[in-house]
Amino acid sequence: MWKRAELKRRGRENFRKNYWPAAAVSLVLAVMMTNIGGPYLIRGEKYNLVSILWTDLLIPWKFQTGIGIVLIRDILYIFIFAVIEVGGAAFYIRNREEQAKAGLVFSGFFDGRYKKYMKGMFMMHLELFFWYLMLLVPGIIKSYAFRMVPYLLAEDPDLTFAEMLHISEEMMRGQKWKAFLLDVSFLGWRVLTTLTLGIAGIFFTGPYIDAVNAELYAVLREERRVQYDADSAVIGVHPAHRE
Fold first, then answer.
1. DSSP 3-state helix, strand, coil percentages of the chain (rounded to 5)?
2. How far apart are the first and last CA of the chain?
3. For residue 128, which of 82, 61, 87 has the smallest C-alpha distance?
4. Which end of the chain is more exposed for a tag (fewer CB within 10 A), N or C?
5. What is the pLDDT of residue 196?
6. What's the CA gap between 95 and 89, in Å, rounded?
7. CA dist list (Å): 178 to 3, 10, 167, 183, 212
8. Gap between the Cα atoms of 227 and 230, Å rounded
9. By three-state DSSP, how is residue 47 classified?
10. pLDDT band for position 63 (50/70/90)?
């Protein structure tokens, strides 16, 4: 079982060892995501209750006026920003093991994975859209369930849409409340980011949160692997047939 303090410690270590590339990647993510408004105005976790409340209720500026602007925003997200988001996930996953290059955030445009990244993220957000149409709370719960999709796409873009959602839901089963508390624990950093007009977000908050989220993914990925191996051993699945 993971603990917030340990995740944060490892996240700090990993972004500090490669500080400027990490800060550059998180700045790109912040600038790109700010342009679509909503939960992206302050860089952090996407589509969770803390971000929604903080950006929609406490921040006074809103740029989402008119159907045309909303449509342009959504098109930009689908074709550009979503691919960059997966690139950011790829950077922070790799940065755990080595000093990743900042250019990795744009890798989806050049490594032949563009369509897979775009399609995967579009389908995920379309699924979330229908959940939010039902009620806010089910939508928020599902957003936590799908939290690992960008990381799964970054590591294995050949997964089908159904496989991505299934694996993410498996990884987040029993973890949503703990992930919510992890988000809450960053609220003070969000306040500091606002008070410093975003400066703290550029140089610390953004890369810190992004690195911690990558640590969460890595921990849950390993827990799922261990559980899968244990289940396979019980039912007698040959190792060569395991995932």
1. 75, 0, 25
2. 22
3. 82
4. N
5. 93
6. 10
7. 9, 17, 18, 9, 13
8. 5
9. coil
10. very low
- Read out DSSP for 167-193? HHHHHHTTTHHHHHHHHHTTHHHHHHH
Average pLDDT, the chain: 83
Please state, in angstroms and rounded to a whole number, the distance separating the CA atoms of residues 54 and 38. Answer: 10
| Token digits of residue 216 | 């969460």
Q: Report how far Cα 60 is from the mean position of its chain's Cα atoms.
A: 25
Please give the average per-residue pLDDT across 40-62, as a whole number. Answer: 43
Structure tokens given for 12: 């700090």
How much of the chain exceeds pLDDT 70, in percent?
Answer: 78
Tens-digit pLDDT profile for residues 130-186: 898 888 888 889 999 999 999 999 999 999 999 999 999 999 999 999 999 999 999
| pTM for this entry | 0.83
Instruction: Decide if 206 contacts 34 (C-beta within 8 A).
Output: no
CA atoms within 13 A on the CB side of 113: 23
